[in-house]
Amino acid sequence: MLKYYLEIIKPRIVLGNIILIMGSFLFTSHLSFNFVLFISTISGASLIIASSCVFNNLIDIKIDSKMCRTKNRALVKKLIRPISAGIFGVCIGLLGIFILGALVNFLSMFLSIIGFIIYVFIYTFLKRTSIYSTFVGSFSGSIPSLIGYAAVNNTLDLFSLFLFFVFIFWQMPHFYAISIVYIEDYKNANLRFFSIERGILKTKKHIFYYIICFTISSFILTFLGYLSYIFLCLVSIINLYWLYISYMNIKEKNNLKLSRKIFFLSIIVVVVFNFLIAVDSKF
User: Fold this and answer.
1) 10 Å Cβ neighbour count for 124?
2) Where exactly are the transmembrane stretches of this chain (predicted)?
3) What are the chain's domains?
């Protein structure tokens, strides 16, 4: 039974968000790293993110039942009762709010709640009606970088806002690549994603444009003095390769081959990016 509850919190999504929290937290900590604050931030935010995933699973039961990728999920197969999942989601969400409010600060707690609301109450429903649901969802996915930053500083500044938009530019090609790979599933579920409504070729072009924006915004962080030129050189290597693959994908007739590669590269890109900003102050 425990494995089913672990499934509905979507561990990979939680882990992906933790990477963003860690990057911004460690960057802004510099030489005054607070281990207790770090663990409290990660724990509290992770519980709220996990709670949002539980409610996303609950709301999407019918959609998940129509897709090959998700038809065997615990809630779809009734391995967990919806009421039990709902109680579980509420409990871990409230625990996360308490941890952030009591052990971190109210700003981080507030940002986590905002991310929860966007993901559960806006994105989850919007993907049924609008091609721009992915863009809205990217705001929720970028908030963890603000949470990590605010946990240390108890404030937000221009750098944190730049970082927020950098991760929006990263998430769009990440999600668009997924939407190409699983386009038949999404069609079966009657979802209105960009790749379905506007076509795969246009989606490929938008992936390329967003990666350009991500790459340029990475440059800007250095040119404004927030990050070093060593960071710029290292991050540019993988960014430009990602950009090159996305350009080749536009010409590629096989829609799955390079779209999968773009997706997996996006994971490497975000891990490398956050690692580099975390250690940048030590360069």
Assistant:
1) 21
2) 12-29, 35-59, 79-100, 106-126, 131-152, 158-183, 207-223, 229-250, 262-279
3) 1-155 (1.10.357.140), 157-283 (1.20.120)
